[in-house]
Amino acid sequence: MSKLDSKALRLAADTLRCLAMDEVQAANSGHPGVAMGLADVMAALWLGHLKVCGTATDWADRDRFVLSGGHASSLLYATLHLAGFDVSLDDLRNFRQLGARTPGHPERGMTPGVETTTGPLGQGVAAGVGMALAERMLAARFNAEGRTLVDHRTWVTCGDGDLEEGISHEACSLAGALGLGKLILLYDSNGITIEGATDIALADDTKRRFESYGWRVLSCDGHDFEDIEKALRKAEKPSEKPTLVICRTVIGKGSPHKAGTASCHGAPLGADEVRLAKQGLGFDPDQAFVVPEGVRELFAKRAAKMRRQWKKWEREAKAAFAADPALQAAWEAHRDQPVPALDGLLPAWGDKPISTRAASGKVLNAIAPAVPWLVGGSADLAPSNMTYLNGLGDVAKGAFAGRNFHFGIRELGMGGILNGLANHGGLRPYGGTFFVFSDYVRPTLRVAALMGAPVIYVLTHDSFHVGEDGPTHEPIEQLPALRAMPEVCDLRPADATETAVAWQVALARRDGPTCLMLSRQNLPVLDRTALAPAEGLAKGAYVLWQRDPAATPDAILIASGSEVSLALQVAQADARNIRVVSMPSWFLFAKQDRAYRDEVLPPAVTKRVAVEAASPFGWERFVGPEGRVLGMEGWGASGPAGKLAEHFGFTPARLAALLNDCLA
């Protein structure tokens, strides 16, 4: 690197520092320290290595960049502005303000160039693993001799906090096992967290930790451009291992009194300190949001180069598609992910009872050939979750053409990786575990809901009917907890036919995560010749049966999942005009218009009983003050499932008694 190059990079990095300081100071809120400490690495990466184009943010073969430490968002926004993305100086001035495109932590879909929502530490690392995995899988499908449609890297910056969070262990361990050689993790090692020096709580040998995962580990002085450049070039060399670059930095670099201290981590530097910092960096202390012309030119040259590279890829892709129309059709199908007509593909159920987890497995394998972009796996529970796609191959180190993941016993890591797979584009991921372990998934599910990532979860063993494994494995509060999360679609199908419709709904949903809660125990396949069609699931709730549909019901029994057949049994044995409503999804039912909701649950009919093998929390919104709920008021227990049903009162006699009490 020439002296001129170093000077140019220094000016670019210092410009990023000043912009980040100005953003935080203008908002009187934010985290200037990490932004200032990481600015040198950021400038070197974006000006010399990262393959992105600000005018083609949907370029399929762009590098993916993830700022896992999302509290340093001011640095990312400043960089996006300089790199030619649609982020203006006014956007920077409005940092952290209501309605701004520059929120306190990066949010996918709000700011051009933000690949994934970050903030909860460690999740960006896991999402980066998912993006790198998607790249390898799509390369295996679409690249061939003389044709390279997919060939890009995933760059992730992280800090001490990211690596302290357990999700980083789960995700990085799997990345090493899979040999994701195009994943590069830039570790901003500044030795400072909110409470002070990291050594008060951290004694890890990070280098040895990552080497034990099967990673290649490099290091550099994060403020020496020659050293940074050397490390980045090494990181780009082909490898069968992911790469960690330990960048030794000083938090708050450039601040005369706060650099290297925790005081600059999560609070503005203050007007006086900002002035002194700018003076020390050679900037006018009385000016804010200033970009020297030389810095604009430097970034503009890089942007022009990247635009040429994008155009070249476009020409090559167009030529490849012209030579092979089938390739183009497959590429577009992976991009657009159309939901095919599944009617002729679905299995016939007959009248033999079957668990909804088993029905789900049959549906998955029946539709898999028609949805080649659907990929998934389980947290070491595929035989129990029934998520395995038979005959379609496993994803493993050096073998990425398959469609089955083995996430290992890593629910939290799995969730973050699924988010990355979904955000990368080209694949639609699903992941499975026991419903009770959705608590391990929950933080990543929440982020998926925040950013509208269309991840599908297969959550089996959905009630105390797990039986002998006992209360540790029997979900009680998980259903209401999941329903409390905005933009999460809950689907708890009553039988095999509803399960098939649930998969169609899940595949069609593009704007958020969908969860299928499935039974371990066998359930009757409801006779749809005498009952309403299962397609009613798509509206969240529907009238399954009523003795006299033309008359006003005397009472309404509402149920989901395995309790629907119980409600039906009680209603059909009752001489009164009882309506049975199957309510597999509160989320979808809430989205229906008022007329439909009143049609299913007429306001005039106040005698209502809900039954669900979960905490009754929340059911009051549907049963009202005169209603009753048969639910789980405490924990489950260990014993045969049939005995537990009697023990907890999920019997026709108990439900009939509640109905009579309600009607009394």
From TrEMBL:
Q: Which UniProt keywords apply?
A: Calcium, Magnesium, Metal-binding, Thiamine pyrophosphate, Transferase
How is this protein named in the record?
A: Transketolase
InterPro entries for this protein: THDP-binding, Transketo_C/PFOR_II, Transketolase-like_C_2, Transketolase-like_Pyr-bd, Transketolase_bac-like, Transketolase_BS, Transketolase_CS, Transketolase_fam
Family classification? Belongs to the transketolase family.
A Pfam family recorded for this sequence: Transket_pyr
Q: TM spans, by residue?
A: none
Subunit info here reads:
Homodimer.
Q: Which cofactor does it need?
A: Mn(2+); Ca(2+); thiamine diphosphate; Mg(2+)
Q: Where is the signal peptide?
A: none
Q: Which GO terms describe its biological process?
A: pentose-phosphate shunt
Q: Which GO terms describe its cellular component?
A: cytosol
**Which NCBIfam families does this chain map to?**
tktlase_bact
Which SMART domains does its entry note? Transket_pyr
Q: Which Gene3D superfamilies match?
A: 3.40.50.920, 3.40.50.970
- Gene Ontology MF terms: metal ion binding; transketolase activity
Identify the catalytic residues: E411
Function text:
Catalyzes the transfer of a two-carbon ketol group from a ketose donor to an aldose acceptor, via a covalent intermediate with the cofactor thiamine pyrophosphate.
Q: How is the cofactor bound?
A: Binds 1 thiamine pyrophosphate per subunit. During the reaction, the substrate forms a covalent intermediate with the cofactor.
Which residues does thiamine diphosphate bind? H71, G119, P120, L121, G161, N190, H265, F437
